[in-house]
Structures are given as C-alpha cells and as structure tokens.
C-alpha cells in the first residue's frame, strides 16, 4: 500500500490568527483597538478548467474490511465470552501467506504460544482487549491489538457479532504511536518522517458497508521537535491482512 496522502489542515494557522486578533483587541485601557484593514473575501478560483478529469484514484486504498472469522462461534451472542487468543490464532490459521514461515509476520506465531497458560506472558504479542459499542447496536464490540513480529508493526482489529458469527470489521497493520476510541470512532496515531509531526487516521462505522471505514487522514504538528525515524514498510490489508509495501 502506498504512502498515506497527508491532509493538511488549517487548524494551526487558524489558532495563530485567533490569538493574534485577541491580543490586538485587548489594550491596556480595556478599549478595542484596530487590528488593521480586513482582507477582501475572494471567491474560489478554479484552475485549469479544461483539465481532463482523472478516471481512477491515484492510490488504491481499501476503506472497508469485512471478514467472517472461520472456526469460531459466539456463545449467546456475547463477544466477551470469546478468548481473544482464540481470535488471534484463527487469523494466523486463515492467512498462512502472512504468518507462515515465509510470511512477513512469521514471528508472531511462536509468540502467541506464550499467551496460553504456562507461557511467558512477557513474550505474548497480544495487547489488552477493549470492549465498546462501535457499531451502534447497543452491544459491545471488541477492539484487539497484537504485535506483528519480527516487524515493528501492530495489528489493529475490530470485531462485532452477527447472530452467532464473529465478524472482523476493521483490519489495519501499521507502526503505531497510539490508538484511541472516541465515541464510535477509532483513531490511530502513526509516526511521520518529519520532526514534530505525526499521522492520525480515523475509522468510523458505516452502516451501508457494515464495516469500520477510513474517514479521515491528518498530518498534524505535535510540537515535540524530535526526529522520528522512518518506520519499516507496513502492510495494509484489504480483504485479508496480507503484507504490501508501505511506509509509515
């Protein structure tokens, strides 16, 4: 999958303009002061009206992933009754091209064994599961994460229940700085190559596609001023979490 195309926002510029205007309006005597002439508003100028429209997107980006998990059923329709380790092992089994001996994430297989009783929990790649209603049906859904060894990537998955079936409705692999749940949205924070910036991607439930869909991609200034090293190529899944070249 190619590089995410950064969406440049005007948040920082607007904040600076607002602070400047506020400072100019607050004099020592408490009186309003002029902030200077107001710029005349211009209507949008259309460039190159004769340009031939593109017939296909510049980058292929699958905005929805949906897959019924094979070999698992949901007792009583309660997603909390399924062992997250079983879910991860079901994915490893369903996608041998990714997790087999020649797969990009082959190291995950041996590590998952340590998630079971008697294993070394410090080596277990599975992260803490979170339960929240992301689909709006009033029942909790499962947000799951696990490390993809030997890479520096993390798998982010969301599962819901339909009848007795466990359905994966989001599958994304990337180098992760953090993941947040905000309402019914999932937000990923990823490293960028430029000092003081990061990528943030938002996924939201789409009732039409019955999946969590990519809804916003932002390239934001964090103000840290530190150099973030370029991440190793990441894999972005479509119908399955197969590895494909991409940079974080």
Describe the secondary structure blueprint for this structure.
Blueprint: H1 11-25, E1 67-73, H2 84-94, H3 96-99, H4 107-112, E2 130-132, E3 141-148, E4 153-162, E5 165-174, E6 178-182, E7 185-191, E8 197-206, E9 211-221
Antiparallel strand pairs: 1-5, 2-3, 3-4, 4-5, 6-7, 7-8, 8-9
Region (Disordered): 225-248
Biased composition (Low complexity): 231-248
Organism: Streptomyces griseofuscus
Uncertain stretches: 1-25, 227-248
Share of β-strand residues? 25-35%
Q: What order do the SSEs take from the amino end to the carboxyl end, as H and E? A: HEHHHEEEEEEEE
Shape category = elongated
Strand order of the largest sheet: 1-5-4-3-2
Structure summary, number of beta strands: 9
Write down the overall mean pLDDT: 80
What does this structure look like?
By secondary structure, the protein is of the alpha+beta class. It has a domain at 67-221. The chain is 15% helix and 29% strand. The chain has 4 helices and 9 strands. The chain has helices spanning 11-25, 84-94, 96-99, 107-112, and strands at 67-73, 130-132, 141-148, 153-162, 165-174, 178-182, 185-191, 197-206, 211-221. The chain has a 5-stranded antiparallel beta sheet with strand order 1-5-4-3-2, with helices on one face. A hairpin with a 4-residue loop joins strand 8 and strand 9 (211-221). The N and C termini lie close together (10 Å). Residues 1-25 and 227-248 have low confidence and may be disordered. This is Lipoprotein. It comes from Streptomyces griseofuscus. Residues 225-248 are annotated as: Disordered.
Please provide a brief summary of the model.
The protein has 248 residues and is of the alpha+beta class. It is built from four helices and nine strands, in the order H-E-H-H-H-E-E-E-E-E-E-E-E.
